[in-house]
Design brief:
Number of strands: 21
Distance between the termini: 56 Å
Radius of gyration: 29 Å
Shape: globular
Strand content: 5-15%
Oligomer: single chain
Structural class: alpha/beta
Largest sheet: 8 strands, mixed
């Protein structure tokens, strides 16, 4: 068991704890993934059957990484037998196996958010309600919250408190919409994401024999990121672990930041209430960040009252103090961050992907995007339009979904006349009304038009019949062909590939290439074998489940060398060498919407803690004195979180502002005098202060010529080989005996001529 030697003392205790409930409090960067993976491997080495282990994560990526690490210790075959995946993927698997018990088809469709909102929009329209009052996104959020609290349509209507809230909000028909939405999903043989947890609870509640079977099947349950679980997830775990009590949860209450999604920090804080005989181990050694970053983050989070006390520490270097930068405007803030990235990247030869810009809301990205583009710095935004949300991808996937589940109305409406086959809007409206009146899927009306009168003429009925025959021919091959072979056949036979290929515009070419990329992914998926059944074909139905359960984190390209921009919520679980936490102003961060109670403010503080602890080497905090919000120029004050950092670990840098325009550009000099009051620098140990040259004075480059001997603060002594470019962006190619050849921008490099 050599793997145990790779663990520190607390990690090893957690791994070797076999029987009984266990809670592992894992501080930021403390190696929780290693503890989870090694604990699973250790259980199997101790003789536990892999089939009896259930491991739940929040992203497929995390599950894959854990399984790969376990495979290296115990082998691929044993690792493949573990029930491991996201909550949604694992319980979707169980629901497919038990679908008939809740009257669903095994190949039920999984609706994404866009699909769900589309159905809700149709429901609102059919009920003649105002979609400005009953906004589909708002209604969807309300229904989602209800399901996460295990409140179905009937319970919703019976709950006087919930109904009263809807009446006060001016939306008294919410219960009717919820009931109609649930009926539409059921009729279409579809579940939304929340249903995967809600229906699992219903399955276990209404069928004790199934609950009994899985309670005895899963002898050991392990849950990652337990602080992010909602009530539906909590109850599933509690029920499944009720027999053996071998429930191991890993998490960090200080990183509980998803209450808006239904996550309940009480689940981790009250673990001892459910399991009084539990053991607890605290992973407090941080392997990620410098001492300054760790200590600064500790000094902030200790202000929270609602927490499990721990002291995170590190043996890493002391590192730079945290630079706090005040800008005159949000535009200046964007320019400062872009220039600092440009400077650091060139002086220290850092790759773009090691930088992250973290903000409280997506709307803050604009000024940073503009500034990065002006300096030709490539960037990517997490949470943008994902590959699987592009129109051409959704179109082809709709054909696949309809092939697997003919009752999927959303898929049918999307592709019935794409490419064009003479089935117009009026026809679809008549079909939809007929289906709604008889409470059947649209497919039933197309198949049997005489049973469901819809006033559709004979010619159009023929076109619908041809369409249905085509889909049925695809369905006949779903069990015998691989996902790729059938997927390629559908793309060709429907005319979709031909339609896209004929469009030679740049956008058309890009859409065609995206379809090819989807098919490449299907080929890769189909070529993977199941270790437990090497001869099994990976079918279209299998592929659709895999795609439907992808999370945002799974869709990112890890090899893309670009500056990362994202909300702090999206950054959780990630880490970067250089992190900029921007927009640190009162009413922005902390959010104005989170100042109504101590619990809300404490979650905002946890969010700031998460932002700081994403940084490995250096963290920079920025805020603006003025910012445009809702079209108005507003005065801003710095966030309370800046003041909460122990002053030993921060330094207030200079104010940055655009130089005044010659004609009426504004008097920034007087603004500086009015707003800028530098904080004293109080450093400790090896702490270094990061200064920024924000003046417009020219940099002295006299004597820096080809052949000159120079010295750089980091790379040491070197020789200038040549100069490139024009002032003020002259670059020097310098050879350093210790560091090799480097390209440095003179205005930032601070080279000393020897």
């Amino acid at each position: 068991m050599e793997y145990l030697e790779q663990l520190n003392q607390e990690q090893r205790k957690a791994v070797e704890h076999v029987d009984g409930p266990l809670m592992v409090i894992a501080g930021a960067g403390s190696g929780k993934t290693r503890v989870l993976t090694y604990r699973i491997a250790h259980l199997i080495n101790m003789g536990v059957d892999p089939f009896s282990i259930l491991a739940l994560t929040f992203t497929n990526k995390a599950a894959r990484e854990m399984k790969e690490r376990i495979s290296k210790i115990i082998g691929d075959k044993e690792a493949a037998n573990i029930w491991m995946g996201t909550f949604h993927s694992v319980f979707a698997r169980i629901l497919r196996m038990e679908a008939d018990r809740i009257n669903y088809p095994r190949n039920f469709t999984i609706y994404d958010t866009q699909d769900s909102r589309s159905v809700i929009k149709d429901v609102i329209k059919s009920m003649n309600l105002d979609d400005k009052v009953y906004k589909p996104a708002t209604v969807y959020g309300r229904i989602s919250a209800a399901k996460n609290n295990l409140i179905g349509p009937a319970e919703y209507r019976a709950n006087t408190e919930v109904m009263s809230e809807d009446h006060q909000a001016g939306r008294p028909k919410m219960a009717d919409i919820y009931a109609a939405y649930a009926e539409r999903c059921y009729r279409a043989g579809a579940m939304d994401f929340d249903d995967l947890l809600y229906k699992t609870n219903v399955l276990m509640r209404d069928h004790p024999d199934i609950l009994h079977r899985y309670q005895h099947k899963f002898q050991f349950i392990l849950v990652d990121e337990y602080q992010d679980t909602n009530f539906a997830q909590y109850l599933i775990i509690k029920q499944l672990g009720a027999v053996h009590h071998n429930v191991c949860v890993v998490g960090d209450d200080a990183q509980s930041i998803y209450s808006f999604r239904g996550a309940d920090i009480g689940n981790i804080l009250n673990f001892k209430r459910d399991y009084p005989d539990f053991a607890m181990y605290k992973l407090e050694q941080n392997y990620r960040s410098t001492k300054v970053i760790v200590n600064a983050a500790n000094s902030v989070i200790e202000k929270n009252k609602n927490q499990i006390k721990k002291t995170v520490w590190t043996d890493n270097d002391q590192g730079d103090v945290i630079s706090v930068h005040r800008s005159m405007s949000d535009g200046d803030e964007g320019r400062f961050v872009a220039e600092r990235i440009f400077e650091t990247r060139n002086n220290l030869q850092v790759e773009n992907k090691e930088f992250a810009i973290l903000y409280r809301t997506n709307s803050q990205s604009r000024s940073f995007e503009e500034s990065l583009r002006k300096l030709n710095i490539p960037y990517r935004i997490y949470g943008g339009l994902s590959f699987y949300q592009r129109k051409e991808i959704k179109d082809l996937l709709a054909y696949y979904r309809l092939t697997a589940n003919h009752a999927d109305d959303e898929a049918l409406k999307r592709v019935v006349n794409y490419p064009a086959r003479g089935i117009g809007k009026t026809t679809m409206e008549r079909l939809t009304i007929a289906a709604s009146n008889h409470k059947v899927p649209i497919w039933k009306v197309i198949q049997n038009p005489h049973e469901y009168p819809s006033e559709i003429n004979g010619a159009t009925q023929g076109k619908l019949r041809n369409f249905a025959t085509m889909i049925e021919s695809f369905a006949a091959q779903i069990e015998t062909k691989s996902a790729f072979d059938l997927g390629q056949h559908i793309a060709d036979s429907t005319g979709l590939m031909r339609e896209l290929y004929s469009d030679k515009t740049p956008e058309g070419v890009a859409r065609y290439e995206n379809i090819q990329e989807l098919l490449n992914g299907m080929k890769e998926f189909s070529d993977q074998t199941d270790p437990t059944d090497p001869d099994a074909i990976r079918t279209m139905a299998d592929f659709l489940v895999d795609v439907a359960l992808l999370t945002d984190a799974d869709k990112q390209d890890d090899d893309d060398n670009k500056v990362n921009m994202m909300t702090i919520h999206a950054s959780k679980g990630l880490e970067f060498d250089y992190v900029f936490v921007v927009g640190l102003e009162e009413n922005l961060f902390p959010s104005q919407l989170a100042l109504n109670s101590r619990d809300e403010l404490e979650e905002e503080r946890r969010l700031f803690y998460v932002a700081l602890t994403r940084a490995r080497k250096q963290a920079t905090l920025t805020y603006a004195i003025t910012r445009y919000r809702w079209g108005q120029l507003s005065q801003c004050e710095e966030s309370r979180f800046i003041e909460e950092i122990d002053p030993r670990y921060v330094h207030l840098a200079a104010v940055s502002a655009r130089r005044p325009e010659p004609f009426g550009g504004g008097n920034f000099a007087s603004a500086r005098q009015r707003f800028y009051k530098p904080m004293p620098s109080n450093t400790q140990g090896k702490t270094r202060v990061s200064q920024t040259n924000t003046s417009s004075e020219p940099i002295d480059t006299e004597g820096i010529v080809p052949g000159a001997e120079v010295e750089h603060a980091r790379f040491g002594k070197g020789k200038v080989l040549k100069l490139e470019g024009d002032a003020p962006n002259i670059k020097a190619i310098v050879f350093f005996p210790k560091a090799g050849q480097k390209q440095l921008l003179l205005k930032f490099a601070k080279l000393k001529v020897l």
